[in-house]
Amino acid sequence: MMAPSTALRETADRPQVWLTGAYRQMLFIREFDLRLAELVAASYDVARFIHLSCGQEAVAVGACAAADDRDLLCVTYRGHGTLLARGADPVRMIVEILGRPGGYQKGLGGSMHLAATELGIIDSAAIVGGNLPIAVGAGLKLKAAGEGGAVLCFFGDGATATGSFHESLNLAALLKLPVVFICENNRRSSRSAFATYSPVERVADRANAYGMHSVVVDGSDVDAMRAAVTDSRRRAVSGAGPVLVEAEVELLTGHFADSQAGLQQDVPGDPVQLCREHLHQVLGETADAQLAAIESEVRRSVALAFVAAGAR
Ligand SMILES: Cc1ncc(C[n+]2csc(CCOP(=O)(O)OP(=O)(O)O)c2C)c(N)n1
Ligand SMILES: [Mg+2]
């Protein structure tokens, strides 16, 4: 099955089409998450632990636009955006989050274990650092099959303090596996600040110890994200070994959605606003009308998905 994100992948040389698609996806992810937060705040029958990715949308959209159909993705409990960017069905996602039988995991996994194997999303880890060894195993499988494809493994900066992070990087580098490790560095692990669990200032520097290539990228810039993952993925697939991508991001809500998890407004680096401004320039004279049309269409699609999933 072709992942819907592949359509966006073919647009690299058409900035208007690419940015329109990227903005649409990023806004969809933002609206989807905010609607989920409303459900939690209303004490709807949804498990409390819903982790939003507001502020980190460009990582999901940029990385998925660099991926191809053969790629396998390992996400985390903060992974709704990556599923949506890869083209997962939002209705089945909401049904899963509500714990009902029609969801991706038959309602047994919920928000933190949302995966979509038919789209190559093979794992969603609620254990911090738990998806890195799985990504390494999947990379070994891809390498052995010799048919191309890479594993994109997403995780937070908190995971860099786990043993599984270090073991995974070591083995992936040793075996030159086609894995792109994407650290979404929001500089906090739940309520702890980065400096309280990392003696090393740059996550990317960790790669040096394993002889692995690394890159630091502005994770709020969807163009930069796409370019970084495209290059990293190419390198990994070519047999040159895995790459560690450190994406600097800012989480604009609390650690998980609860009644205090209001979205920070008017943050200068908000990726959705940055993409909107960029697209506004590209669209020219009719930008305002086109953006308004996109925004009302996306908001309507999100609202319809929640209705179709039976959430009120
Ligand atoms: C092995 C393990 N230890 C602790 C936890 C509790 N926990 C859940 S999320 C979280 C923070 C992880 O931070 P990070 O990896 O930076 O991801 P972020 O939430 O910032 O996206 C912690 C400590 C866990 N789920 N698994
Ligand atoms: Mg973090």
TrEMBL record:
One of the Pfam families matching this protein, by short name: E1_dh
Entry annotated with the keyword S-adenosyl-L-methionine: no
Cofactor(s) the protein needs: thiamine diphosphate
Keyword Oxidoreductase: yes
Keywords associated with the record: Oxidoreductase, Thiamine pyrophosphate
Matches recorded under Gene3D superfamilies: 3.40.50.970
InterPro entries, sorted: DH_E1, PDH_E1_Alpha_Subunit, THDP-binding
Domain Dehydrogenase E1 component: 44-309
Domain of life, per lineage: Bacteria
Family matches, as SUPFAM superfamilies: Thiamin diphosphate-binding fold (THDP-binding) (SSF52518)
Annotated protein name in UniProt: Thiamine pyrophosphate-dependent dehydrogenase E1 component subunit alpha
The species this protein was found in: Kribbella speibonae
